[in-house]
Amino acid sequence: MVQVDLIDIWDQRAAEGWNAYVRAHAGGTPFHLTHWGRAIQGAYGYETPYLRARRGQDIAGVLPLTHVRSALFGKSFISNAFAVYGGPLAEDAEAHAALDAAAWSLAQKAGVPTLEYRNRQRLRPDWPAKAETYVTFRRPLYEREDDNLKAIPRKQRAEVRRSLTFDLETLVDRNVDRHFAVYAESVRNLGTPVFPKRWFAAILDAFGEDADILTVAKDGRPLSSVLSLYFNGEVAPYYGGGVADARTWRANDHMYWKLMLHAAARGCTLFDFGRSKVGTGAAAFKKNWGFEPEPLVYEYRLADGHTMPDLNPLNPKYRLMTEVWSRLPLPVANTFGPLIARGLA
What we know:
Blueprint: E1 3-7, H1 12-24, H2 34-44, E2 50-55, E3 58-64, E4 66-70, E5 74-79, E6 89-90, H3 93-110, E7 114-119, E8 129-130, E9 134-140, H4 145-150, H5 154-163, E10 168-173, H6 176-189, H7 197-207, E11 211-218, E12 221-231, E13 234-242, H8 251-265, E14 270-277, H9 281-288, E15 293-295, E16 297-302, H10 316-325, H11 330-341
Parallel strand pairs: 5-7, 13-14
Antiparallel strand pairs: 1-2, 2-3, 3-6, 4-5, 7-16, 8-16, 9-14, 9-15, 10-11, 11-12, 12-13
Helix pairs in contact: 2-7, 5-8
């Protein structure tokens, strides 16, 4: 018989058992770890109910949840918030069903109308789902530099080689201030509110050596920067961007190439280029690197009378907001952006 309980993600013993299960499960991701929940609590103060299914003393499944509360976008339980992947990890259908039931019970008690799982595959055929909005991009990394270069299609390989002709500096560290300055300008230019600086600091604090920042600079000026996560031999460049001049110096091309080499040197064998919206420039950029898109399936259990949320910036409802935001002075965008972004989970 499967029993479900809540763990305290700050309890060392419980967290170690949970994380060992996640790392051993074929569907585990860094967003299933207690690290992610700790970062969310530290940066946003959201509740993070982490549900554990057990048979006796053995873990039979886990489901990390975040209780997102936004005056603009409503309330929801998400697995997992601010993440591209999530959903339950379990041994069998019985454990899956027990976690589903426990999660929906929590949602009902909290008056939350939406339960969202962010999966790479369809898990609940009877739930409403979005399977045509997002894709992810993953492919192998190789030990030898030349093999990684050959894996890049000819046109993009030429851009990488051109970037190497410029006198660009690569910095790998944990400098949040420098990363935030670059990333904030990048997302403002795209018309997107920036997350608070404390969010990036919280991620680095929670993941320790399994997270870092790689920045490309020219004559001492940062041009592009990316915060990456490392998990089970995979590297995930998660928050990355560049200033306007990054294009001139091919700094973004340089950044991702240098990250591939850095990750390979760390022993990574897979590069997870992450989520992009179908039909966007970001998706095309990743395909140019030789990555093939894989559909993501986001599944929802909804209270009566509620529909699937649609916070996609390509939604016509938000298009005018995006255009206006991209023209805001950077200090204004950086002041008000984090207040909005906390609800864009």
